[in-house]
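Let's practice the habit of predicting before peeking. Look at the sequence and jot down your guess about where helices and strands might fall. Then scroll down.
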Amino acid sequence: MKIDKNNAVRASRMLLAFVGMLIISGSCKKDFLDQKTLSVLGESAIFSDSTYALQFVNNRYVNATYSWEPNRFSAVGGLESACDEAEPAPSVTDYHSLISSGAANPSNTHKVLYNTTYAQVRAVNIFLKNLNIVPVTAATKKVWEGQVRFMRAWYLAAMIKHYGGIQLVGNTVFEEQDEINLPRSTYEESVNYVVSECDAVASLLPVSYVNAIDYGRATKGAALALKARVLLYAASPLTNDNRTDDPGHLVSYGNADPNRWKKAADAAQAVIDMNYYSLYRASAPAFYQNFLVGLTAPNLEHIFAFMPPTTTPNNMYRETIMNPPSRGTRYTATISCFPLQEMVDAFGMANGLPISDPASGYPGIGDNMYLNRDPRLAQSVSYNGALRAFSGITGDQPVRTYTGALPAGSQGNPNLSSAQLDGIYKSNATRTGYYCYKMLSNNVINGGAELNRPRVLIRYAEVLLNAAEAVNETSGPTAQVYTWLRDIRSRAGITAGTGATFGIKNGLLKDEMREVIRNERRVELAYEEHRFWDVRRWKIAPQTENKEMHGLEITRAENGVFSYRLIVVSKHVFRENMYFWPIPQSEITKSPALKQNPGY
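Done guessing? Here is the structure:
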């Protein structure tokens, strides 16, 4: 049975589309291309020309951000809207809504990652098959091979996060006429393959690139950091279990092995020991600015980042779908990704203490609830009173998310009357009382210029958090664990306090430090495609996801007094089978040897 025909056709068409793009853009090769037609132009014509071969390498990066994007499922929906970080607009119902409502199944599951991954894997394998005829130096071939193999590992690592054990095809290039009925490899085999590829390409890739045009290409550090991330996930409680519903070990190891934490710790340490990366501190506020710089000069916190072409027509897409309507951009879209109160409450105080600590100084819900908070809150979330740029006015102005009476002088004043656009319950406005601000430029607003910026996929702060978690699970809260966490908090602007603890008490037990690390990941890595997976690999999703999610309704009275009320925004559902995604039924129909995930 030719069960993989569609994927083969799709990848073949991708190759032809690539050639077509070269015909359009490759004017320097016009005479050569004029002698050819798509019906006869073959692989040898592409790979025997170094320009075309490099373009083929470049095209392996085009889907790198897919799983990370805030508009992954629709124009305005991503994984942050499928967990306890944010809520989508009520008018947006796509796969993130199916996830949070517990309605995802093999027939309606999102298939783009599945299809994209194997199209990219096939393209990588085509390149490797033809590498020997590419007319470049041996040194260049080595780096190009490292790049495409890294990207293959990158896509497969994303598949493992979603599905567990996957179909491993190695370097094989399947053709349309081939009968393909590959079973899934075990979870362990899949992890080992990606890890071995990361090890192999780390020896092929440079630490850095000299020219700015090469920023964003895979490096040795990216390979080692991806390995560390994969091993951290593999060491976590979710897969370290002997599941009776997983006899083939497709989504688990079948046992618990504490040594897996040691492997994860060693892998993260290998990145740290490169002594190349560091937390960004060059401009203030450093945590906020970190996401906006790195296109024209190295940002040594960015280990792997996608660099959009400067010709991209809309480099304000995040602002378009996240800014309050009063700020907006020159584009229009349904605004979505509204932070939940649960996410806001995860940010502690500027002294580093959680708001639940009586010594923190948190006054409770009310007019002063956002004062003296962890600076990362204001740099990640736009709340009522948060200061943001406003078109046509010098100086930042308050965001107004309240409902109720407008202040005096509002009529004809777009700034003072902005609650009519931004207030909770207004059309195309927040449904939680908050807007997402993480990775947004304050200057990209109505009438503002676009801002090209990196899309940061792995950064050094994550590596430090990965190392802290793995070492704590291996050896408890060592002095080095404290150092890593306090370094992150110091950069964030948390005050050092007495003894320079940055709010992390000395003498914590392993379980206590585990909670500190988990919350630090939650706030430091918010809206970067981590929380959705973290609560799953930690097996705490039944507590964090299977419950009502909240927002904050603020009402302004005629006398200017505000009242506050927690509101239920939605009820999320989580069941045991939802730790991993269902394999698309269409793939199982094509490949009967492909086993479905437990519970579907």
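How did you do? Residues 1-11+56-71+88-201+581-600 form a domain with the Serine Threonine Protein Phosphatase 5, Tetratricopeptide repeat fold (CATH 1.25.40.890).
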